[in-house]
Amino acid sequence: MDTTTLAARRERALGAGAPLFYDRPLHIVRGEGVHLFDESGRRYVDMYNNVPCVGHANRHVVEAMSRQQATLNVHSRYLHEGIVALAERLAALHGPAIESVIFSCSGTEANEVALRMARGATGKSGIVCTNATYHGNSEAVGKMTRLGADQNSAADVRAIPFPEMFRPLVPGASESDLAEAYLERLRGAIRSLEDDGVGFAGLIVCPIFANEGLPDVPHGFMARAAETVRAAGGFLIADEVQAGYCRTGRWWGYEGAGFTPDIVVTGKPMGNGLPLAATAASKALVDGFRARTRYFNTFASSPLQAAVGMAVLDVIEREGLAENVTRVGASLKAALIQRKKTCAAIGDVRGLGLFIGLEMVRGGSALEPDSDRAIEVVNELKDRGFLTSNAGAFRNVVKIRPPLVFGQRDADEFLTAFDATIAEING
Amino acid sequence: MDTTTLAARRERALGAGAPLFYDRPLHIVRGEGVHLFDESGRRYVDMYNNVPCVGHANRHVVEAMSRQQATLNVHSRYLHEGIVALAERLAALHGPAIESVIFSCSGTEANEVALRMARGATGKSGIVCTNATYHGNSEAVGKMTRLGADQNSAADVRAIPFPEMFRPLVPGASESDLAEAYLERLRGAIRSLEDDGVGFAGLIVCPIFANEGLPDVPHGFMARAAETVRAAGGFLIADEVQAGYCRTGRWWGYEGAGFTPDIVVTGKPMGNGLPLAATAASKALVDGFRARTRYFNTFASSPLQAAVGMAVLDVIEREGLAENVTRVGASLKAALIQRKKTCAAIGDVRGLGLFIGLEMVRGGSALEPDSDRAIEVVNELKDRGFLTSNAGAFRNVVKIRPPLVFGQRDADEFLTAFDATIAEING
């Protein structure tokens, strides 16, 4: 079926505005490892990825899924060892404060659980988030989407500026003073919730501030933010949906960010495409949540989620993907930093592991975001066979995020295409 | 692993209070067709079911899942024919007013979409639901859970008594007067929302009132409720998560209930265990929702959801399961009505197709609910190898809901076990 006909059918069946990537959308029919293939057989390198983290059509995952679905896939009100073993294995990937796990089907659902857990345990409802974040699509979680400074319309949510070095809240301030300035905003948000009688339940952050554009964060900010949150009686929620699962070269984004969360939310990469998400915390927090809510999630904690979740962890561990991410990611980032020197449109190169952001700026000013240029780069790279997207508070950050199995040769191929793209832009 | 050890591990890993069925929980390790098997190899007939509607380990579904996961499973911002075809096929199972579909991962997520769709389209936020219902576990959807008459704490939700003939709102009234009495409650709830300045966005019901205990509804109530809702400018949301997919012998619960919804929510049976749910409506409603929200759901609308969703529909159609449900369900219900005549503890036998409820009452009064007896029956049946559960506003309804592939021989086996259970109770 040709792409135009399919797009028209899609518009009728899914409604107008169902999101599509690229000026000329791709019709993808097959995936294998780091590659996706369109209907004409053309090969693309998946550098958007996010979900199928151990590679498209990963054989170990396919086999685990097939075997389990052919054996048993039922709701969780019978005892089954699979989901217990997955919960134990997940908890063991954190420090001792994380003991128990509530499974769900999406990052949205897992963040719903996290918010209700923090709110229930504190008896307060106020949540602080950052002002260019996204944590999910439900009514409660959606209140945290793209909250600008003047858009705090939800009585129980306050947005603070996300911490960053590139466009600092206090230009010219030392890193320590800058951290303090951001902390003061956090304290102010907490005070505002308390003054309004809402009270403070917790702070939620993506530890690498992925939707904000992967900013370099003033040293010490997150550790001190964690202290501030706890001193105020709140809980710190780490939304590891994008940051976790070795994306940065370590299991969790919070490890690189230098803090320890009370509640950890995971999602996207957990099932390599099977809907699977989790909220992990101390047993006391989980017990309290369960007692208050009698939470049950029909499709979650199933033998299928368990088998596929285990298979993804197996592949990450057996294939040493954390090390691969660290090695290839560092090499790719260093190469992109080199490109920045000769391309004025690249204002900054940021990120960790296999999640790198290129901040595109106008030639005239290093601080003036250029989202048109970011979109142009993304579309050019697509035409050259490399699938990326754009993100960030100004949508001007080219987001480079290949699967964890992305190798050095893949990185070299990408750099060749990237150089051609940059040459065209510069030309 | 023995059941006690596994239960203790589970309590640590998933937290205390993760729901389990039965006084002595079952450790289930395998499923096949209508059967589940515990770790000792003992066979049980799954008469709770709900999700794996075409049978456990259904081969056609397993093959579709395996093949698709080995081919492509990626997010929906590329064009892919699979999900378009599934949306078209689902829409075609409704009347012409249902044109477009938004996929998600759970009934909760699909009901979130439905509520936001109705609220966005009307510009009002007030929702009317019934007072012993359950539509999901998120903050917004959870506001509708078990709302008693005095528990209308959510400003934008009003609960009305669910319509029923067994414990009628007006004892002794004619069926027509009774329908009118329930309608007056609906009108009152709408007025209350308008008087409070909240406004009326819509009514949400399970068309067979499954959580309420499958009541027989006064004739004409639902059709007139639909008129009332539309006259007041609201939308009628049918939550077909339990009622749909031929559970009643027809594709949708609303067909038997005699009304046409504006928004249809489906979930549980759609993927035979794969997380898959949908919100379907007119293209205008779906377009409006998408324009207002830019809704995106990472795991939803995937090629995997599409392939598995199609496989389930294939099996239902190819194997003539609607006809099977009608035939076996009618025979089973008739047999249970026979048992009611000699067992005073059975106050009522209700339901349609393969979803039957036995209302357990105290011997002294046909109207006094006996939840202890319902739980006893459920546990007794379990010990005899038949898995049911209890439901209803008083938790006194034994819920009998085998897979759509449940045959007459399975029904006969069940009746033998049921007779033994009743004999023990009567004895």
Task: Walk me through what this model shows.
The structure is a homodimer. By secondary structure, chain A is α/β, with parallel strands linked by helices. The first copy, chain A, has two domains: about 5-55 and about 320-425, Aspartate Aminotransferase, domain 1; about 60-320, Type I PLP-dependent aspartate aminotransferase-like (Major domain) (Aspartate Aminotransferase, domain 2, 3-Layer(aba) Sandwich). Chain A has helices at about 5-15, 60-70, 80-90, 105-120, 140, 175-195, 220-230, 255, 285-295, 305-320, 320-340, 370-385, 410-425, and strands at about 30, 35-40, 45, 100-105, 125-130, 155-160, 200-205, 235-240, 265, 275-280, 345-350, 355-360, 385, 390, 395-400. In chain A, helix 8 (about 255) links the parallel strand 8 and strand 9.
The protein's oligomeric status is homodimer
Class by alpha and beta content of chain A: alpha/beta
In CATH, the homologous superfamily of the largest domain in chain A goes by the name Type I PLP-dependent aspartate aminotransferase-like (Major domain)
Number of domains of chain A: 2
Q: In CATH terms, what is the fold-level topology of the largest domain in chain A?
A: Aspartate Aminotransferase, domain 2
Q: Which percent bin holds the helix content of chain A?
A: 40-55%
Provide the CATH top-level class of the largest domain in chain A. Alpha Beta
Biggest sheet features of chain A? 7 strands, mixed
The fraction of residues in strands of chain A falls at 15-25%
Total strands of chain A: 15
In the sheet with the most strands of chain A, the strands line up as: 4-10-9-8-7-5-6
Rg result of chain A: 22 Å
